[in-house]
Amino acid sequence: MTRISWCNAAAVAAAILVSSGAALAQAEEPIRLGEFNSYTGFAAFTLPYRDGWTLALEEINEAGGVLGRPLEVISRDDGASPAAAIAVANELVTREGVDILFGTLLSNVGVAVSDFARQRKVLFLAAEPLTDTLAWSHGNDYTFRLRPGTYVQAAMLAEEAAKIEDAVRWVTIAPNYEYGQAAVAAFKELLKEKRPDVEFVGEQWPGQGQIDAGAAVQALEAANPDAIFNVTFSSDLARFVREGEVRGLFEGRTVASLLSGEPEWIDPLGAEAPEGWIVTGYPWYAIDTPEHDSFLKKYQERFDDYPRLGSLVGYIALHSIALAMEEAGTTEVEAVIESLRGLTVESPIGPVTYREIDQQSDMGAFVGRLTVQEGMPRMVDWRFAPGSEYLPDDERVRELQGSD
User: Fold this and answer.
1) Residues 30 and 162 in one domain
2) 321 and 268 inside one domain
């Protein structure tokens, strides 16, 4: 396992080509990276994510770049569509000449780009997609994944949910695509391992961005549950929360909710945010460590705004690639891949290691309960849960990968 310290790094940004003034001043040929994400479809997450990698890019270039060369990031919108993302990836590789890609948000988009990377033998760091197929059943040598996936975050929530003795009858609601399906399957499996007495008595599968919140809430209420597992996010989350509050769905019931403590998804609700939900998220306002304090100060000074989880993801993603190239001593794809396997980088929330067995990072997550303070949603009674404590062991990973 290789471990290197977190270096000063990087950014520039925008939708086409990003390169800092310090980088332009350098005589060496720039190292070009390809980046794409759902900037128009899910701006609440992806614009802060872009700010995060922009900050990293500026830091890296101000510190002299990578291997003595400046970084350039050629950035595109992936249209929140697998087909559009493949077209963009092909353009970046064929026309722009990049052989390292990073980004994407939606799980189905990430899976499609991962297969493209395998076929074209380019490195792809899936910064944000949560499906575990990227690391396991559809994993490949050319794809790494940064964020803790559905299995890890579902495990964190299942651990907390299992402590609620009277939460026996559960219902679920999730978007009907790879991310939602995987999250529900993992939560069911992991909760029943801890609580064999629980039963799942109802489920709703709205299309992403197409939730009929009134009908969904009515159907869940009709199942007479003790508890709810929610996987909706973005505008669907807001609609679900508002309709659920109006109809009393959440009264006297436990709610475990994936991602609902992330500022990009919950802050738009303001004082309407639900109270008491068990969530995974990012309490940027309450993390008191020197590493996070430094990141927070730099981010706020640069963008006059507070970071979202996407900001953190973008920042760590670009640092990871830069550090892997430095460690490899080259930009050659196979060497950078070998460098990333087992690589540990220091991040604003602690060390992050890319495991050799599945090329999944052990980035952790924050778990706590939602409340409202001074008109804004806040996580309270939270703890940081290291991803390494929830990822399956090597034997289980081999089973999930379909290998002996």
Assistant:
1) no
2) no
Instruction: Report the distance separating Cα 12 and Cα 55, nearest Å.
Output: 7
Alpha-carbon distance of 253 to 174, in angstroms, equals 18
Average pLDDT over residues 328-335: 98
CATH code of 188's domain:
3.40.50.2300
User: Pairing relation of β-strands 343-347 and 278-281?
Assistant: unpaired
Residues 30 and 140 in one domain: yes
Q: Amino acid identity, residue 248?
A: G
Indicate the average pLDDT of the chain: 93
- Which whole number is the average pLDDT over 267-292? 97
Structure-token pair, residue 278: 């068990």
pTM of the model: 0.91
User: Sheet harboring 31-37: ordered strands across?
Assistant: 17-18, 71-77, 31-37, 100-103, 123-126, 143-145
Confidence of residue 27 (pLDDT cuts 50, 70, 90): low
Tokens of 97: 């000449």
Q: How far apart are the first and last CA of the chain?
A: 23
Give the β-pairing of 365-373 and 376-385. Answer: antiparallel
Domain with 12 in it = 2-149+287-353
From the list 133, 135, 137, the residue with the least C-alpha distance to 108 is: 133
CA distances from 298 to 14, 244, 292 (A): 19, 39, 10
